[in-house]
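Case study 2.
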Amino acid sequence: MQSPCSLKQIFQSFAPEPMGVLRGRVVSAEPLVIQGEGDQKLRLGCRLLCLPDHLDDLRADDRVYLLSFNYGKKYIVLGREKK
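Prediction:
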């Protein structure tokens, strides 16, 4: 068996269900709503998002990277793009 060499492969080795990385845009900071890039229907509210402490200052129009897990029922905000 090959050992995981990418960040995505490492995360996938920890979780039995499929995971995916996607980009999104912060539509609203209060309450937090993130819209998936390229998918107008994918709007994620705070109930679906896990937000790390270092990203508690997200603002509208920030671009973020999300890790989906639990078959798309939960998303972790991984980081923000530099402007």
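The chain has one domain: 21-80.
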